[in-house]
Every structure is written in structure tokens, then in C-alpha cells.
TrEMBL record:
<protein>
    <submittedName>
        <fullName>Heterokaryon incompatibility protein</fullName>
    </submittedName>
</protein>
<dbReference type="InterPro" id="IPR010730">
    <property type="entry name" value="HET"/>
</dbReference>
<dbReference type="Pfam" id="PF26639">
    <property type="entry name" value="Het-6_barrel"/>
</dbReference>
<dbReference type="InterPro" id="IPR052895">
    <property type="entry name" value="HetReg/Transcr_Mod"/>
</dbReference>
<feature type="domain" description="Heterokaryon incompatibility">
    <location>
        <begin position="6"/>
        <end position="134"/>
    </location>
</feature>
<dbReference type="Pfam" id="PF06985">
    <property type="entry name" value="HET"/>
</dbReference>
Length: 688
């Protein structure tokens, strides 16, 4: 089918292409869009097709008024790009302030070049998923054509990248024009990074960078990128990535998410869940690649200099799991992702979602209410008002990077005090004078005696991207302050999952968990939880050692017609285990359900913990037998190795442990009880 837009392009190309051009490949014509099998075959061949072409022609549509005026604007911004940004697009300096922006010599707000520029950026070409590989695989810089005007790709792309990174908020594109230019600018920033680097790219990186692109066919959000990935470089894509338009979208996205987590042993792809999820359609851990990001990323990524197999973004500043790779459970139902991690604390207070307009104009009352609560809740954790203020400042910005060398934590508190002062006065002037004057006393609130000009407040407000549409929260027992997704609620669980750069918020649903989203938590971003777990500094109340975290929607009552899911758990207790004990640290476990025929809980009730070696040995053997039954039935595991159920006495939660070739009862008896009759007599189950 030839659409009116395509007809315009064909007519224009007939006039603009040179006589050496014999063939022009147009996907919409050359691929039978109605034949799903043919489309799938052609999609897997796209890299080969584009590699044979001489170049790429970009048709942006018919002329816009004054299109020629943007040439000088683009020239100026491309020069500023060379001055202010590194070749890979990262900033050499912090974003421009208003005064700095006025001094760099860009056209005035009324200049028609801005209108023409905005109209071009509003053209749909810039946000189509398929154009990414078309531009990236072009042997020469693409020809950009708008009507009869040709635009320089080499200048247009870096100019747009500079504008987005350095000063977009001060330009007429943001202030006075209503055209939707941000998506196109983000796209052009990706094109700039593709131009500056070599292929292949890591799939997670591409999905991250292209999350705001659009595709009329949802599966193409993934399939349109595959030609640029290292998976495609191997010659044959894994089955989970091969184009198949007959498979449901939900299965495609589920298998892609699982492939990435399993193959990379990283949870970076879960950071793409920055939207209100549809849990009725997708499991909570499955990324909906068609969903538009509704809040910004928390992590600051940079290019991995050690991965020579693919261009890959890595988290360079946040390391909540201390580099510990993700542990993914095998042989689970497809809709369940089994992960391991530490349960840290329960969310006890959640403040309102913060909007960008309110934050940049100092009108967010949630900031003031959260600050008031921080002064009360964080007193025991942080001894001074200044320490509380720094924790609050860094959390509210997610320790945002000003440039490649400076983060918000490196800045003086004057930035925060000035911003909070502006919030205070905005709130006070709105009719809340008496309430706020009382708050200043009860919260020990004080303005710094060294407040500077409004520049400090403006600088702080320019780096609140992470706070947009997120909520500040506090935890119950350990008084952490954090910044979490807008859908989080009181009583959600704060966790550090292995393989994650940031902590995560989970929600209990029966015996499983749902993934709510990533979060920033002051004092948990550099591996503190992992270090405390290894050293035994954390009580069992704040961390579940080796607990399997199943992130899943409500589990149906049956996996299939023949296997019934157990509803109770075996209660075999291991009393008083030392979290710092080296052998205990090395254990990996997963929650295990109860087999109705076994009533192990009758052997050791809460008030009757066994105290002899023989009693423990008997219980351990019964646990081995019970788990063997689980394996035989194929309910959780598909093999028949004797896995082993134990329950920590303080947690009263069961989990099983695989000691590989060593039988559970023999291993545990050796670790818990010294051999010999004398040791038997003195053995105490409460402390072993």
C-alpha cells in the first residue's frame, strides 16, 4: 500500500537522486506487510540488505516555511557541541544557566529559525523504531531532505544532541512553541552516539536508548534493533529473539526480558520499567517495550571500556549489589522470574508524586512535607541538621551528575538551602504562614546564614530530573530515605537484588512478589547492604539471606491440568544460625512449598525447637525425603537431586539449599556438631 506520504517521497526522490542510483529499497513496498512469515524472514535479513546499499535517504516531508533559516542555527549549535561535549555525547561542563544561555549567541526567541526547527523536529520520521538501523547501517552519512531543502546530517545530529544536553529548557522550543520536539531530540542524540561508535551494540543499551521510539507493530520495538546487536553478529539469533509475528506480544516481551537478564546476569533491563504497568497483561518483571517512560532514569550510565564484544552502557556510579551478578532460578513457569537478593526494610511513609512544573517553580508542597518528616525520622540516623539536609539533597536528585566529574553530593549545601528557602516562601505566601512558622520550630528547620543568590536555587532545580513523577519515602525500622516510583505504596518492601545497580521496591502478593520498580536510597547505593550481609552487621529482620524472590502476578491454582500447586510450606527450623558464619554465607536458596502428605511442622513447633543431634538429623533426613518428592513431581525443579529444606529460627521462613554432591544432613551435621561423644553431650541446637 502506497500512502500519500510515501507517494510524496517517491515523487521527490525521482527528482533528487542521481543517475547512478538504480534501485531504492522501501520497506513498505518491498516487504509484504500482510504475510507474517515473510515479514519475519525479511526482518532477520535486514542487516544483510542494508549492508549492500550505497546509502540512506531520509525523507522528512514537504517544505516547512523558512526552512532555509535553520542552517545558520544548526551551524552555531554544532560548533557549541564541539566545545561543550565529548565525542560520545557526554558533557564536559554542567548545563547552562539562564545568564550563560543568553551569552552564547543563539538567535532570539522571535527568530523564525526556531519555528522552522521545531516544525522539522515534529516530523514523525525521528521517532520511528525502524529508522535507527537504517541510519546506523548507512555506509555514508544519510541525506536529509525536507521538501527541496537538503540538511547536513553531520551538523544537524550533533546540534540537536548539544541542545538537549545543555540548554533545552531555556529555548523557545520549550518555552513558547507547542511542537513536541523532545522525542526527536532524544532520537538525534542516539543517532549521534551511533555515529561516534562502532557496531555491534549491547541489546539492553539499544532498548534503553530507543525506549521512546514508536512502532505500529509492537514486536518491532525489539525486532527493529536486532541487526545492530552482538546476538546478530554471531550469525544466528537465539530462538527467543528471532522475529515471529505469530507469537503474542506478551510472550515476545517476556522472552526478550528473560533472555537479557539470564545472558547478562544483570538487572539493568528492569530499569526500563518507568511507567504505570499493566499487571493484568504482563508479569511485573516483564518490560513492556511499547510503554512510554513516564519518569526519568535513576542510574548514570557510561560506555563500558572493558567490553570489546559490543558497545555497552554500564552503570558507573550506583552499585547497590556490589557487582554481585544476578542469580536466576531455573525450571520455573514462564511467567515467573526467580531472583535472589536481600530484603532490607518495609516502606513506612510515602509522599506524593512530584511534578516537573511544581519542582522547577519551587511550588512542590510534597518537598516541604517530606523535609518536615525527614527532620523527625532521620534524627537518630544522622546527628545534625546538615547531615539530614545532605541526605535529603542527594536523595531528591538521586545524586544526579552535573557532568562526567561532578555529582550533586560534591556540591555545597547552599544549593539545597536556597532551593528549600524558595519552596518555603512560595508555600508561605500561598496562605500557610502560621502552619509553616510552627513547622520551622518543630522540625528544627533553619536557613543557612550564607544563602547566596537565586543562582544556587536555579542550579539545584536544573538537576531534579530523577524526582519528576517519583515519590520520596521513608522506611520503618532502619529510617532510610529514598526516591521511588510513583506507584509505590506504604508497606511495600525495600530490597537489594543481586545484579541490580539500584535497590528495588517489591510488593508481596501471597507468597510471591511483584516488582514495583527501581529506587534510590541514601546509604544503599554503593554495596552497603551486601557488605553488611557478609559481615553479619545486619539483623535477620532487615535481610533474608539467600531468599528466592519470585516476581510474578497472582499465580493460578494449577500449572497445568495434572499438577496442583502446594498451598502450605514445610516448617523445618534451623535455630540461631550465625549470619556471619562463612559456610552459611555461601548458601544460595529458594523458597519452597509444602507437600500436603508431609507434616514436618509437627516435629518442631515454634516453642519446641529440637536440642539434640539425633532430632536434628531426623528432621534433616525427612526434609531430604520431602524435597525428593517435590523433584519427582516436577512442581518446582525438573531433576531429582536431593535439595534440602531449612527454616531460620528468627525468620520462621523456609528455604531449600543445594549442597551439590554433598548430602544435606551429612553437611549440616558436620557444620553444626563437632564429632565425638563429648561434643554430643554439650550440643545446643539454639546456638548452632
Amino acid at each position: 500500500m502506497i500512502t500519500p506520504h510515501l507517494k510524496e517521497a517517491i515523487n521527490a526522490l525521482g527528482l533528487l537522486t542521481n543517475r547512478k542510483t538504480e534501485w531504492i529499497w522501501i520497506d513498505q513496498i518491498c516487504i509484504n506487510q500482510d504475510d507474517k512469515k515473510e515479514r519475519a524472514i525479511q526482518v532477520d535479513m535486514m542487516k544483510h540488505i542494508y549492508s549492500l546499499s550505497l546509502g540512506t535517504i531520509i525523507w522528512l516531508g514537504t517544505n516547512v516555511p523558512n526552512v532555509e533559516t535553520i542552517l545558520s542555527l544548526v551551524d552555531r549549535m554544532s560548533i557549541l557541541y564541539e566545545q561543550d561535549l565529548n565525542p560520545n555525547g557526554t558533557r564536559r561542563r554542567s548545563r547552562y544557566t539562564w545568564d550563560e544561555y543568553l551569552s552564547i549567541g543563539l538567535p532570539s526567541a522571535k527568530d523564525p529559525a526556531w519555528i522552522a526547527f521545531g516544525q522539522i523536529l515534529s516530523r514523525p520520521w525521528f521517532i520511528r523504531s525502524w529508522v535507527i538501523q537504517e541510519a546506523a547501517l548507512s555506509k555514508v552519512p544519510p541525506q536529509m531532505i525536507c521538501g527541496t531543502q537538503e540538511l547536513s546530517w553531520e551538523k544537524f545530529v550533533p546540534a540537536a544532541s548539544w541542545l538537549l544536553s545543555m540548554c533545552y529548557q531555556f529555548t523557545p522550543l520549550n518555552i513558547s512553541l507547542k511542537s513536541p520536539t523532545i522525542p526527536a531530540l532524544r532520537s538525534l542524540k542516539l543517532f549521534n552516539e551511533l555515529v561516534q561508535s562502532t557496531l555491534p551494540w549491547d541489546l539492553t543499551t539499544l532498548l534503553n536508548k530507543s525506549i521512546r521510539f514508536k512502532a505500529s507493530e509492537p514486536r518491532d520495538k525489539v525486532y527493529s534493533l536486532l541487526a545492530l546487536t552482538k546476538e546478530a553478529d554471531t550469525g544466528k539469533l537465539p530462538l527467543s529473539l528471532q522475529a515471529n509475528y505469530e507469537r503474542p506480544v506478551e510472550q515476545v516481551f517476556r522472552d526478550v526480558t528473560r533472555h537479557i537478564v539470564t545472558s547478562t546476569r544483570s538487572l539493568a533491563v528492569l530499569s526500563l520499567i518507568r511507567y504505570v504497568p499493566d499487571w493484568d497483561r504482563y508479569s511485573s518483571w516483564v518490560v513492556d517495550f511499547t510503554a512510554q517512560a513516564q519518569w526519568d532514569r535513576l542510574s548514570y550510565f557510561n560506555w563500558d571500556q572493558n567490553d570489546h564484544t559490543a558497545r555497552c552502557l554500564v552503570e558507573t556510579l550506583n552499585h547497590s549489589s556490589a557487582g554481585r551478578p544476578a542469580v536466576v532460578a531455573k525450571d520455573l513457569p514462564d511467567h515467573i522470574l526467580g531472583l535472589e537478593g536481600l530484603e532490607i526494610d518495609t516502606v513506612n511513609a510515602v509522599h506524593g508524586a512530584m511534578s516537573k512544573p511544581e519542582l522547577v517553580s519551587f511550588k512542590s508542597r510534597d518537598i516541604w512535607f517530606a523535609w518536615k518528616e525527614a527532620c523527625q525520622r532521620l534524627e537518630e540516623r544522622y546527628p545534625t541538621t546538615e547531615a539530614i539536609a545532605r541526605a535529603f539533597m542527594v536523595t531528591l536528585t538521586a545524586n544526579w551528575s552535573l557532568n562526567d566529574h561532578e555529582r550533586m553530593s560534591d556540591q555545597p549545601l547552599s544549593h539545597f538551602w536556597q532551593y528549600l528557602s524558595q519552596v518555603y516562601h512560595q508555600f508561605r505566601d500561598s496562605g500557610s504562614k502560621d502552619e509553616l512558622d510552627a513547622d520551622r520550630e518543630t522540625t528544627k528547620y533553619q536557613f543557612s546564614p550564607h544563602l547566596n543568590s537565586d543562582r544556587d536555587a536555579n542550579l539545584f532545580s536544573l538537576h531534579l530530573d530523577a524526582a519528576y513523577e517519583r515519590r520520596l519515602f521513608f522506611t520503618k525500622d532502619l529510617s532510610y530515605i529514598g526516591l521511588g516510583p510513583r506507584i509505590m505504596e506504604k508497606n511495600d518492601i525495600l530490597c537489594v537484588l543481586f545484579g541490580g545497580a539500584t535497590p528495588f521496591v517489591l510488593r508481596r502478593v501471597g507468597k510471591y512478589y511483584r516488582l514495583v520498580g527501581e529506587c534510590y536510597v541514601f546509604d544503599l547505593m554503593s554495596g552497603e547492604a551486601i557488605g553488611g550481609w557478609k559481615k553479619g552487621k545486619f539483623s535477620v529482620k532487615m535481610t533474608i539471606q539467600c531468599a528466592g524472590l519470585f516476581l510474578t502476578p497472582d499465580l493460578p491454582q494449577t500449572l497445568d491440568q495434572s499438577i496442583t500447586i502446594p498451598t502450605r510450606r514445610a516448617l523445618v527450623r534451623l535455630a540461631g544460625a550465625d549470619m556471619a558464619f562463612p559456610e552459611y554465607e555461601a548458601v544460595h536458596g529458594i523458597l519452597l512449598d509444602y507437600i500436603p502428605e508431609w507434616k514436618v511442622e509437627t516435629l518442631c513447633g515454634r516453642g519446641a525447637i529440637p536440642t539434640t543431634q539425633e532430632a536434628w538429623t531426623s528432621i534433616m533426613q525427612k526434609a531430604v525425603d520431602a524435597t525428593f518428592e517435590f523433584n519427582q513431581r516436577g512442581i518446582i525443579l525438573q531433576d531429582c537431586s536431593p535439595f534440602n529444606v531449612i527454616v531460620h529460627a528468627w525468620m520462621f521462613e523456609p528455604f531449600f539449599i543445594d549442597f551439590a554432591t554433598v548430602l544435606f544432613k551429612d553437611k549440616m551435621v558436620r557444620e553444626l556438631v563437632e564429632s565425638g561423644d563429648a561434643a554430643k553431650e554439650d550440643w545446643d541446637g539454639q546456638y548452632e
